[in-house]
Amino acid sequence: xxxxxxxxxxxxxxxxxxxxALAFMDARAAAIRAGAASECVWLLEHPPLYTAGTSAxxxxxxxxxxxxxxxxxxxxxxxxxxxxxxxxxxxxxLKARGGDVRAxxxxxxxxxISTLAHFxxxxxxxxxxxxxxxxxxxxxxxxxxxxxxxxxxxVRRWVSLHGIALxxxxxxxxxxxxxxxxxxxxxxxxxxxxxxxATMEEVDMALxxxxxxxxxxxxxx
Length: 221
Prior knowledge:
Blueprint: E1 7-11, H1 18-33, E2 40-44, E3 49-52, E4 68-71, E5 78-81, E6 85-91, H2 101-117, E7 124-126, E8 129-135, E9 145-156, E10 159-167, E11 187-188, H3 200-214, E12 218-220
Parallel strand pairs: 1-2, 1-12, 3-4, 9-11
Antiparallel strand pairs: 2-6, 3-5, 6-10, 7-8, 8-9, 9-10
Helix pairs in contact: 2-3
């Protein structure tokens, strides 16, 4: 892999409209497939909105009027995006990286878990429950587990789209309008909710470092 063109990193400070992000991903994925652009990771925040993946159950949209709802081609069900949540859109040539989509999803999980370790948070996988989870011991509820990061993946002609959403300090009440990822009976948390003070810049630094560990190096836009 040492002869691969470095991954380009983009970081947006302003909130990015969802439609704008989709248009960029679509165009970049086509360019990657055509050999006309390098792979890319885009770190951003969205304004408050809900997205519905290809498996979304309409019954899981509890308040259809709270925020805009965007239908999307990624896998999964309903999720929330908004300020204080670091979204990482990952556009990689999976065919050149071994052509194993399952391994790619596990690598995304590992990327998040390794990033959380920078902030002394133990993130874990759960069979049958997408995303990255943490055990709660701070609220008098033994056995409680909350989701701290969501994953959503689409692959088009072996190029990945979408990626991860890590809760840094979003308004967690915004999740009340959906059943997140169709999983009832569990909560949603964030670094701030776990009592940790982390800036978005610090989270970005950890994401960058751990991405290079899991996937390889990149270059700034």
